[in-house]
Amino acid sequence: MMRDSQRFNFIEEFDAFGVPDALPQMPLTLMYRDSSIEVSALLDTGASVNVLPYSVGVQLGAVWEEQTTSVVLAGNLASVEARGLLVPARIGNFDPVQLVFAWSRSDDAPLLLVRMNFFLEFDVCFYRSRLVFEVCVKSQSAI
């Protein structure tokens, strides 16, 4: 177990084909201006940029037209317009961190936490056979 870590369970669901699967989804609180919302995010070690679905940004009070940094998405989101949005997030009992999101103009993708910049802020250890994962703030981890 990582020092000063928090453990989360994989969430068991059915995929698009009706096949059962377990995914590393984590609850977190997103804060923007005077709003905060509780959400669940999928951890994806293969993706490059955190993705925020359009409706989540709207719930936070973000205004699309105020975001001027364009972000190019890849894969199944390559055709979706996205803009950069900085959003403080609280994960469990950890201090809030600033996450950089590609705020997509679509709700077709889940909220994703990925290499840029979630995995730069946190170390994560997956125990897939036990359906758990542990998260630790990067400065607290010891190799």
List the main descriptive attributes of the protein structure presented here.
143 residues, 7-stranded mixed beta sheet, 3-stranded antiparallel beta sheet, mainly beta, 8% helix
Uncertain runs: none
Q: Care to count the β-strands?
A: 12
Order of helices and strands: EEEEEEHEEEEHEE
Q: Average pLDDT, to the nearest integer? A: 93
Helix content: under 10%
Kindly, what is the distance between the CA atoms of the first and last residues, rounded to a whole number of angstroms?
12 Å
The number of helical runs is 2
What is the beta-strand fraction? over 45%
Structure classification: mainly beta
> What is the alpha-carbon Rg in Å?
15 Å
- The general outline is globular
Biggest sheet, open or closed, and with what strands and sense? Answer: 7 strands, mixed
Describe the structure.
The structure is a single chain. With 143 residues, this protein is mostly beta strands. It is built from two helices and twelve strands. Strands 4, 5, 6, 7, 8, 9 and 10 form a seven-stranded mixed sheet that branches. Strands 1-12-11 form a three-stranded antiparallel sheet. A two-stranded antiparallel sheet has the order 2-3. A hairpin with a 5-residue loop joins strand 2 and strand 3 (20-23). The model has no long low-confidence stretch (mean pLDDT 93).
